[in-house]
Design goal:
Carbamoyl phosphate synthase small chain; ten-stranded mixed beta sheet; Rossmann fold; Glucose Oxidase, domain 1; ATP-binding; ligase; 25% helix; 19 strands; alpha/beta; 2 domains; binds glutamine; 363 residues
Length: 363
């Protein structure tokens, strides 16, 4: 069925609807990964966003049982050049169309995704609506312009109650701001005894689990929309080793007195080069973020910049000057990949071990 994507600036893309027939409004962003559509559409950090994929053929290896990054995808819509309806892969269980129908997510195929991406790069992320052909373009564009998108996405995707993911090793409290399964998978692989807690858990409640370390997950939206978490991270500083990823990194920065701002069109893809300043090593990383830490604000914060993006020089990693705490803007858990930065989980394990030793010495 013919459907259209209307943007707030009045641009229209007419294509073929697939998946759900729902009408939907969201922030339109693009991801440049050549593979990984299943992980992208189930990454809770995309909550409230419509994602266009620049790779032209999506769905060609189907959807499998294992590669989801959350149980319930919270992406608003998927926009593609071509949706493959005959996937070919031994793991494939569903087509992309079947999955989107099952999860009630609209898809739009057959549009010029290159043109859409260039538009977003030029004007910055735009609000958009996927709707039927009868909609009045001018009216929709006007109402989109005036529309304020919801800001409570973290509350929507975080777990409502704590739950354990047991292991015999280090006890890690994982604060769930919209966690990708990949983070839990990496901690479990290292035999961590993980307790996943809601985003608004207090520092006292986190410490009551006697953790060896605290992990701050990725998540959707503006980090400034979760002030309670900034407060919590601030209280935890110095008391327990902390490792933050993406939204967790931004919350860590804000908790240390630094600032964040919104990028024009963000970083979303699987091949973003990041340089580690100390060694000069470059890692190719998976990224998905619209906000970033302001480097000018770090000068007066107790933080060192450890990593920078090679494409645009933005901050990609931070370390606290005195407390055992560090964070990265990119995704060491990869999912879909690449896995260059996976060693950061080892660094976290070592940091927890070191902290424990120092505590024993000082006891
Ligand atoms: N993947 C993430 O955690 C994204 C963080 C934040 N929502 C941003 O867009 O910058």
């Amino acid at each position: 069925m013919e459907r259209q994507l209307i943007l707030e600036d009045g641009t229209v893309f007419i294509g073929e609807g697939f998946g759900s027939e729902l009408e939907t409004v969201g922030e339109v962003v693009f991801n440049t990964g050549m593979t990984g559509y299943q992980e992208i559409l189930s990454d809770p950090s995309y909550c409230g966003q419509m994602v266009t994929l620049t790779y032209p053929l999506i769905g060609n290896y189907g959807v499998n049982r294992d590669d989801f990054e959350s149980i319930q995808p919270s992406i608003k819509a998927l926009i593609v050049r071509e949706a493959a309806d005959l996937p070919s892969n031994f793991r494939s269980e569903l087509t992309i169309d079947e999955l989107l129908k099952q999860k009630n997510i609209p898809g739009l195929a057959g549009i010029d995704t290159r043109k859409l991406t260039r538009l977003i790069r030029k004007h910055g992320t735009l609000k958009g609506k996927i709707t039927g052909m009868q909609a009045d373009v001018e009216e929709v564009a006007k109402s989109l312009k005036a529309k304020v998108l919801p800001v409570n996405q973290v509350a929507q995707v975080s777990t409502p109650t704590p739950y354990p993911s047991p292991g015999r090793g280090k006890r890690v409290v994982l604060v769930d701001f919209g966690m990708k399964h990949g983070i839990l998978r990496e901690l479990n692989r290292r035999d961590c005894d993980v307790i996943v807690v809601p985003y608004n858990t207090s520092a006292a409640d986190i410490l009551s689990f006697h953790p060896d370390g605290v992990m701050l997950s990725n998540g959707p939206g503006d980090p400034k929309n979760v002030p309670e978490a900034i407060e919590t991270v601030n209280e935890l500083l110095g008391q327990v080793p902390i490792f933050g990823i993406c939204l967790g990194h931004q919350l860590f920065a804000l908790a240390c007195g630094a600032d964040t701002f919104k990028l024009k069109f963000g970083h979303r893809g699987s091949n973003h080069p990041v340089k580690e300043l100390q060694t000069g090593n470059v890692h190719i990383t998976a990224q998905n973020h619209g906000y970033t830490v302001d480097p000018a604000s770090i000068v007066s914060a107790p933080l060192d910049i450890t990593h920078v993006a090679l494409n645009d020089g933005t901050v990609e990693g931070l370390r606290h000057k005195t407390a055992p705490a560090f964070s990265v803007q990119y995704h060491p858990e990869a999912s879909p990949g690449p896995e260059d930065a996976n060693g950061l989980f080892e660094e976290f394990m070592e940091m927890m071990e070191q902290f424990l030793k120092e505590e024993l010495v000082n006891a």
